[in-house]
Amino acid sequence: MDEYESQNQTEQISEQLPEQPGPKFDEGRRKRLPIIIAVIGGTILGMVITLGLGILYLRGLTKEREVQSEGVVSNLSSDELIDGPSSNKLDTIIAYINQLYYKDVTDEQLTEGVYAGLVDSLDDPYSQYFTTEEYESYRETLAANYAGIGALLQKDKGSGAVQITKVYPDTPAEKSGLKEGDTIVSADEYKATDMELDEFVQHIRGEEGTKVKLVIFRDDKETEVTCTRAKISAPTVEHQMLDDKVGYIAVSQFAETTYDDFVSAYEDLESQGMTSVIFDMRDNGGGLLDSVVDMLDYLLPKGVVVYTQDKYEKQEDFNSDDKHQKNIPMIVLVNGNTASAAEIFTGAIRDFDYGTIIGTKTFGKGIVQSTIPFSDGSAIKLTTQTYYTPSGECIQGKGIEPDIELEFEFLGEEGENYSIDKDNQIQRALEELKK
Description:
Radius of gyration: 23 Å
Number of helices: 11
Distance between the termini: 34 Å
Oligomer: single chain
Low-confidence stretches: 1-74
CATH superfamily of the largest domain: 2-enoyl-CoA Hydratase, Chain A, domain 1
Helix content: 25-40%
Strand content: 15-25%
Structural class: alpha+beta
Mean pLDDT: 80
């Protein structure tokens, strides 16, 4: 996925917000509620509105469904939020901000910060509030079609450094000389280490035709690079035929078009006489659940490929039927950045005993987010479910251990361009398929 965090969310989206149970408010009281919420949430000003770790829908943008509100009970009433000490404290804080804060602050800033603060109080990195502009950008990301530079980014959890893991052909990134392995220090003076990757990405993206100044660290020195943003339609599936009729299909993200592209790639390899296949899920942070379920349905026999469960222990099964199934040897390549929907794919192939997993332990994201848009174009995203592999395993925080543990090593010379024949994990997969 272009310029996007590698740990995306498996999510669902509804067309509209269903009417929620609970008390109604008149306009005067409604206007004050968001500010009160900020006190409860612990934030008013200085709120960093995060853009979510990536990126995926439970029913996706391609097959929308409503989020039902049955059984949802609030422990906090509206009167408790508005009346009493909270209201007095809020009025005092607002007065101090308006009179003493060194910059002018708009009502919109405070209100949007309040909404973000309420969701942020959950202390869940995958739950967040989107402004209208942020939600539009988020949807563009999941559609893999937006204005950016055309590079796949990854953030190191320890150092916070952001590294380019892929540069797409004929994009601003390639034209400006950016390379795989470059570290992005800053974008328009916004430092990469100061924020989450999804937020940092928004400073790289922008309007088509505008410029972004990047500071790149390469060969032990910093260099400034200017890219002119362009519409990016990032390919999510790449394929080729390897020796001995082994097909190779790399999936970087599960976006709206991924299933169709995957089927086209598979059929193309079949027409060339493919007898076995390697699925490369390394650095795939996830995407739309519909995409991965449809792909598994295309490959696997009848059965449950993944199921989810909410806090009320309500279970939902996602199944493959017996209309399609493939019966050739399969290998799945994974690493520590294989997450969410990519782990669903890996877990299903493993549990159906349909292939061998090679690489290193996967990321370990086994929870589901639901995205609920509002009529003004904003939205909230909440972690709502846990998902399980077909065997009933929850991988949250654990990941999937490969059948064959093998750290990546590039077998070429230092400075040599990457090639599949110098990728030790792919070469090991080829050896396994010969057995």
